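Continuing the series of single-chain predictions for the mutant panel. This is the parent chain; the variants come on the following pages.
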Amino acid sequence: MHQSSHSVKRRSSLAWRVIAPSSLLLLVLVALFVWLGHHHLTQQLEQSRQGHHERQQREIRLAMQRSADNLRQLAGLTANAPDLGNALAQNDDEGLRTVLAAQWPSLQLEAGVDGVFVFDRRGQQRGQSGMGAPDMELPIRGWVDDLLTREVPIKTLRCTTSCQQYAAVPILVEGDSIGMVMLSRSLADVTREAKEVSGSEVALMVTGQVESDANDPSRYLPGWNGHLVAITNREPTLSLLEQASLATPIYQLADTPFSMEYAGRHLELSAVYMEDDADWRSTSYFLLVSDITTQTAAIQRATNTLLALGVAGWLAAELLLLAILLGPMARLRRVAALLPALSDGQFQRVRAHLPQTTPRRSNEIDILESATRTLTDQLERLESSVHDHSDQLAERIEELASERDFVNSLLDTAQVFIVVQTAAGRIQRVNEYTRSRLGLCDRDLEGRHFYDIFDSTAHTPQGDHTHREAPTGQLTSHQQEEKTLHTQDKRYATVAWYHAPLTSSHQKQVARISVGLDITERKAAEERLTWLAEHDPLTELYNRRYFQDAVQHALLCQSEGAIVLLDLNQFKEVNELSGHPVGDQLLREVADTLFLNLGQRGTIARLGGDEFALLLEGVNSEQAISVADYINQLLSRIGFQAAGRKHHISASMGIALFPAHGQTSADLLASADMAMYKAKESSHQDWYLLSQAENAKDELQDRVYWVEQLHNALEHEQFELMAQPIVRLKDHDIKHYEVLIRMRQPDGSLIAPQHFIPVAEQSGLVVALDRWVIKHSLQALGKLQEHGVSLAVNLSGQSLHDLGLKQYLTDELRSSGADPHHLILEVTETAAITDFSTARNVLQTFRDLGCRTALDDFGIGFSSFHYLGQLPVDYIKIDGSFIRSLLINPDSHTIVKAIADIAKGFGKQTIAEFVDQAALSPILEEYGINYGQGFYLGKPIPLTQLLKG
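Parent structure:
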């Protein structure tokens, strides 16, 4: 048995534990050294080849530029040839051929020109030499016009089945351009120069929508969708390019060369994009193939050398380390083999195998052997002492066990937590109730710190609780505290602990006993009441009370920030159409969306109804606006559906900055509320930021004043209806009036509608105002209709959602006796397009009653052209901004005529608003506008005056 143990330890001795990791480390370092060397050489090659690739690109583009400049110079010399201009000016075709024939030999033989063409001012070809007719796709006419206009030579490159450079210059006679000379030349010379400069095989490829080469389909590369129009060393180069086209996209070659093995050689393929190619159907590239076999082989040889040196160094280091460790490790193994004998009491055997003296110049192993001898003597003395005390210890253990059983029997009768602790807070005993609630046995509890078990909020590492040990003065007095306990049923319970000192005659340190009562239900009730005082129960967001306190605290801290107050649009319609439970569900979804996305940015609260607020500290106006835009994006993505209806969610937001817009929470909320109503008034944005000059209190008082005035005017009939004539332009006949409303002041003066209509829309009184106008207009219409007069009444966008409007209109038509055909109900284009489906249904309802309909302020949004044919309207009223600018803005002519033509195409009549000058009437009549309305044609008069005749 000892032999087997010794053999196992020999195989896993310290020597091998040192040698094995060190060998592995050295191998890793050798591998890393070789890899770094190889990587460095490879990077050097890649950088060198990248630089070579960039030089190739510059040289090829320079060669292209020189070729194009040379061709332009030749074109200029040809255009200045004697008698060429005169022959073209005199339409002497024979003279042109003679001049070109004299120039052609030198152009063809010395300059490699493929063709010379002469065109007159109309772009007609008048003469040529060399290649046949020019490519039909060339924009000859455009070049001629450009040259005649700018007189600047044209240089271009076009690649299809071949690549041709073109140069065109004007033909000048006595300073006037009378035509154009165009020269064309292939890229053969550029290709040869590219091969000489790069030392590589060169190919010229055209990709894109070009005609294939019917004579040589083998030059087509399907991987790049390209045709090779020129290639050097054709057989090997073509095969290489076919493989490369399947391995890498062509656009990558223009930035980074591509390396590959072919026929046992390492080759590098790169591309030069020809930026001058003006043919939109194709893209052309110079392809360069370079042999880098020599460089690659050199890198591989250097890597092999590094690997050989590294392995040799590793072997030498291992041999040296092994030689150093063999002797000391043998002595260590001897001592290690003797240590197990101490546990068996073989003290004499251990002494016999150890040196009896210690050398004067001792090392660590000598010290270990001396310590082992000393340990042997001490263990021998301790063994005899242990035998003497073992019987006494057994008796004491039995007494302690009896005492513990007695105390446990007393503790287990109580249905409360009872814990006995040491002075250090270590658990000594617990009762049965405690064990059952924790689901732990005594073995799991004894010796652990009290707060590790009974305080779930503590995070101190186990075994180190010195910072929580109670001072001696506290252990000798009674204490109370509350702690959170994690029970067996995975719940958290709140326990009220009562601590009292516990002493005994045989203990020097003071211990304590702790009794705990479960008060979880009482604490839950208290927390619920506290939560309800600060939160909205529906959305679980903070309520108005908490939000106002948070705003006041921010002001007291003299911090800066913003309040964003948002009110959901059309929330009332959601409640009415889908029911209040659905509305509550929508509020919860909006609250969850705001909290999840903005809960970390600030304090979010529901103030009541469909109003939410966000407190942002440490932000400026731009950041507050950014948050408002982000809120709109969040709401638009909700996509709320209920009862088969899909509701689009949006909100109007008011932004107030603090302390600029208020020194108290009430002032800030009032400012934000005012800004929110301004956002509701706006038609182009969903938020509004108060400026420094705006005073929310004054505006709020002003709004309250006008609301009171509206209520008073509706109650006491203090409105005045005006009638403005709508004139038929072809004969100036008047059978049509628009009803306008004014508010009468106590002094008899009239107030224009722009002062009170916006407040009526904000306060919801505009629906009652619309009904008042309908009622009194129908009463007047009952008397005017016998003269063939029709009245037009404007309806607000809110009245389109008035579910009782149809019945009200029916009742008023019946009571007034008015003919519905003489009543024209107008809605604005903006209101119709905002809720197209509702507007179409309401307008159709009016027509079903026999009324006519009109679309007011048309043309502000041209998207409405799409809906024009679908809206059941009889009249289109063109917005006055276009009419007033007809005499000064040509664009207005186009817009007005387009609206008139479209309306006529849909069978609808048109009315021009704001006709305030005599010069406008003939223009409108010319465009086919049926009616006009404006101060030039007739100013508004009281409706009572119209009734008097």
